[in-house]
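Sequence in, structure out. Go.
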Amino acid sequence: MKSASDGLLMAYIDGSCLENKHVDAQTPASWSVVIVTGDNELGKGTGTILTEFYGRVQTNPDADDFIGAEVGSNNTGELTAMAEALRWLLKHNEEREVLVRTDSTYAGNIASGHWRAKANLELASRVQALWNEVSRICQLKWKHVRAHKGHRWNERADHLAFRVLNEQEPIPFSFWKPGQR
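Output:
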């Protein structure tokens, strides 16, 4: 892969769900995306945030922002984060190399088509379609990052997803410290 100075974008994604057992369409779940420039493939937490965004997982098929999640769960949060990151890349990427970093091997393998979904089939299908579309315009890969191990950008994505899930405003980045929820 190219170095960060050659234009590598890193997209850190995360999902969150408080009650991740016996989930249904009313179970609250959330997602977040942190786009970083100047980090490297090793994901040392260097670089600068280009943008960050987040939201709740939508399970209502009649809602404008519904993309196929049948339930609110950590997995649907992770897949929704992947979808939102890929949507952003379609709008803003100018054929730059992209590495998606996620603490969910599930989301990475479903998105890239290495695994077949057994639930939330519409969401998984839409995420795979987005992955394929973005892959046509840039070199796209994903890589696992260990959760809750102090990685700066993964911790930031976790913070954002956790805060929106709990209906709290995220702490502005300039005041936030890794590990702070």
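Check: The longest helix spans residues 74-92. Confidence is low (pLDDT under 50) at residues 1-5.
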